[in-house]
Design a protein that fits this description.
Layout lengths: L2 E6 L2 E9 L6 E6 L4 E6 L11 E7 L5 E8 L3 H6 L4 E5 L6 H18 L7
Antiparallel strand pairs: 1-2, 2-3, 3-4, 4-5, 5-6, 6-7
Length: 121
């Protein structure tokens, strides 16, 4: 399982930890103490033709959606012939700044895990 540590000025803000799941990508967003503050759940299929791919940002108990991380469709030519991607992140305005930074880190992790291509692909 993957684990991303997010730091600022040498101090740890928290972690984004991949959870084991068979069907959908799941992540736990943890504060610096390792306590779960948010969860992220992706779609069954992370490859989408002519549409956005949405990862839901949920409360720690998974009862409410509080935001989303979206890989935005940029058009056929850019999607097929380049490795450039566009992402959007939505979250509550009153969310702690450290948690916002953790969601930005989660966006990078999701991009590297599902949307970056190696030289052989």
């Amino acid at each position: 399982m993957n684990r991303l540590e997010v730091t600022a000025s040498g101090s740890t803000l928290g972690y984004v930890v991949q959870e084991w799941s068979i069907f959908v990508p799941k992540y736990e967003v943890q504060n610096a103490a390792g306590e779960c503050v948010l969860r992220i759940e992706g779609p069954f299929c992370t490859w989408s033709m002519c549409g956005d791919v949405e990862f839901k940002v949920l409360s720690h108990d998974r009862k409410t959606q509080v935001g989303k991380i979206t890989k935005q469709w940029t058009g056929f030519v850019q999607e097929m012939f380049t490795d450039a991607d566009h992402f959007g992140i939505t979250f509550p305005m009153d969310l702690e700044i450290s948690i916002k930074a953790l969601l930005l880190g989660a966006c990078f992790l999701i991009d590297f895990m599902f949307f970056e291509k190696s030289n052989n692909e």
